Amino acid sequence: MAGLGPAALPLLLGALLLPGLPAEHVPALLWSTGRSQWNPDPALHEGHIVSAQELAVLLQPVFTPNPSNLVLFLQERLSIDDFTYYSESYGNKNPFQNVQEILQSSPSSLVLPAVDCKATRDLLNFLQASGDWNLKNLTNLDISQLEVNTSKPNLLVIQLQSLTSDLNEISTLEAIAENDKIIGRLTRDLQERGIHFSVIYTAVRPSRISRKPDVMWKLRRQLMATEEEDNSSYPPLNVTTGNNTCILFYASNFSLVVNGSVLIELTEATFVTRSVDISSSTCSDANTTLSLKYTKPVNGINSLEIRFLMTNMFYGGSARNWFTLDSVEIVQDEEKLAKYNVSVISAPAEYSFHCQLVGTSSLYLARLIPSNMEAINWDVFISRFQIQGFNVKNGQFSYASDCTGFFSPAIWMGLVTSIILLWILTYGIHMIMQLTTNSRFDDPKGPALSVPQTE
Predict the structure, then answer these.
(1) In terms of C-beta density within 10 A (0-12 exposed, 13-18 middle, 19 or more buried), how is residue 62 classed?
(2) pLDDT tens-place string over residues 60-117
(3) Domains, the chain, ranges and CATH?
(4) How far separated are the first and last CA of the chain, in Å rounded?
(5) How far apart are alpha carbons 121 and 128 in whole angstroms?
(6) Sequence-ordered list of residues with C-beta below 8 angstroms from that of 419, at least 6 positions apart, any chain
(7) DSSP character for 7?
(8) Which helix (H) or strand (E) holds 415?
């Protein structure tokens, strides 16, 4: 690999200092009994955190053509893991029973697994500024005394019971179940009165640290760094054949460095402005090629094409098909070809592949290895890389197979500590075994024992 020039060094350092923890996010559940229809945005791919701007777009059915009645159930803490953890850990006692039944029976509903906490904290202010509401804050949760004036759109804000961090699991379960009952009672009461309304159920902060952080580096190493704002609100690049999507490609940063000094930034052209030409991409059941063509990406280069060549094969050892990214090619001005072999990037054919850092650097777990002399002149940097070349369903990424290794830093620390303690124990036993007792003893009733110095 060519040496890193002045332009490549800041890029590499920026990639290595990615934040180790994901941005805080909470789930948001939306449903409606009236004319509001919740439609998911196709730009929301797997693992995407909904920003405040995207949430405002998703809430437009409430305000068009005129604001309708809206109920906001606001909880202090809630995470998407709570719905599975508490529902599956306590047998038949499902604390979200009412919410699940309402979602299933509602004519229109939408579940957002991850919404930026900044968006939910400002949600009430946004709603108040978006319509001429008859605002009612219910703090005593006495639903029986609720009066709704249907001559004007109503905004009902219900502050649910807080799930403080010092509660044990049983108390948390009871608090969630009580909030679920409140949601069920108010929903049924409004339906019995014949009032059409929309509902938002969310929280202002997550209830626990996510069990599956979506930002990893190499062997799950988490660096102490300032949390990065997630500005990647663009959808993945898709290649379609007819009406079917056959390739999906996403990256938060896609950059090249040629000859160690010229930086070529391709992120915006690929995912934002979509000025990239993908017409040469091909799809089949066995072989897929993602072709990205750029016109004059920088001065001195008239055309640049990057190809990702993938295969889908059956392996008898696992008795299933696997897709593999076999090679990556860079073609400059239709004559200079740089080719790279690829390590690690493979997954079951039904899955997508994800890796936090992919490129030519030896520090990356998923590495592009130069296979000809021209490839030495290029450095590739891709962060938050995700690709799927087969079995794409509904235009969205399937479950992602990650590039993280088996031996994480925690496992290595445990092994090293165990070896040190075992060595200390072995040394101590060895020293105890070397101890000997005295061969002669002093008799207090007899003469003093004299030991000659020669012995």
Answers:
(1) buried
(2) 877 776 667 888 888 888 888 777 777 655 555 678 888 888 888 888 888 888 888 8
(3) 8-14+229-402 (2.40.160.110), 25-205 (no CATH)
(4) 72
(5) 13
(6) none
(7) T
(8) helix 409-433
Compute the radius of gyration of the chain from its Cα atoms: 31
> What is the spatial distance between Cα 342 and Cα 370, in angstroms, rounded to a whole number?
9
Burial of 108 (0-12, 13-18, 19+ CB in 10 A): middle
Residue that the structure tokens 């999906």 belong to: 248
pLDDT in tens, 274-298: 888 998 999 988 899 999 999 988 8
| pTM of the predicted model over 0.90 | no
DSSP tag of 424: H
Q: Can you tell me the distance from the alpha carbon of 175 to that of 147, in angstroms, rounded to the nearest whole number?
A: 26
Secondary structure of residue 443 in the 3-state scheme: coil
* CA–CA gap between residue 50 and residue 230 (Å, rounded): 10
Task: Please tell me the distance from the alpha carbon of residue 382 to that of residue 252, in angstroms, as a whole number.
Answer: 8
Q: Which residue has the tokens 């693992």?
A: 47
Q: Report the C-alpha dihedral over residues 322, 326, 328, 329, rounded to 10 degrees.
A: -130
Query: Which residues fall within 8 angstroms of residue 75, CB to CB, at 6 or more apart?
Result: 160, 161, 162, 163, 179, 201, 202, 203, 204
Dihedral, CA of residue 412, residue 417, residue 420 and residue 425, to nearest 10: -140
- Letter for the amino acid at 451? V
Reading the block at residue 22, the tokens are 């994901």
List, in order, residues 6 or more apart from 336 with CB less than 8 Å away: 374
Q: How far apart are CA 235 and CA 233, in angstroms?
A: 7
